[in-house]
Amino acid sequence: MYESQTCCYSNVVLKLTQMIGKNVKLYDMVLQFLRTLFLRTRNVHYCTLRAELLMSLHDLDISEICSVDPCHKFTWCLDACIREKFVDGKRSRELQGFLDGVKKGQEQVLGDLSMILCDPFACNTLVLSLIKNIQELLSQDALPRDSSDLMLLLRMLSLGQGAWDMIDSQVFKEPRLDLEVVTRFLPSMMSVVVDDHIHVVEQKLPSEEKSSLSYPSALPEGYTRFLQENRVACEMGLYYVLHIAKLRNKNALQRLLPSLGQSDLTPDP
């Protein structure tokens, strides 16, 4: 489905789609197998397969299944964001509407939504959108907590990161977002982004206009602790390092990589 998928994986999705056809019971059985395999292996690509299977049925206009899967519209909207590698304001409001629309007594839907958000393609899109959102906030001199789009992205990333725990415990409730991620970690991350931006700009200045200040070697207080203790913060820290690597900012990499090495993105089973 996505450009980065292999032909082999696409064939698996196609074969499953053909096997299921319009049979809702068979579709539900396949989904249960995917949940079980995800629990046993922690392999997030079973989450990818869950979303891909639904979108394949959507593309074939199998309304008998799409109309009864409560995750259909959410997955369809998220799929459009994944294709563009960005969650814009309009789609952000649509996704929030789907999440807020989960009714009492239907909380089990959150388990499937968390799997869909745990898909690496979805996670990639959410974190890339968060980084862009942070850069926009810096240009506007705004705080993270003032951005409803950023708060939703954090909410969805947190839901995806908690997929395994939710399905394993069968407690279908959105994980509470650590407020300190918003009030302390994100501001410290923004200060790191500012340092890196200043460095990039200064490198382009003539020698006589460059400042005598050296590039900071220490990270803001608490930054490393958040990467060690919070999955959402660690995911953002990882993606920012990848972003910096693309910019070939050696000073920033030397500053950030040690903190990332002390974190743990994959909890023990």
From TrEMBL:
One of its GO terms (biological process) is negative regulation of transcription elongation by RNA polymerase II. It holds the Pfam family COBRA1. GO terms for cellular component: NELF complex. It comes from the Eukaryota. This is Negative elongation factor B. It comes from Knipowitschia caucasica (Caucasian dwarf goby).
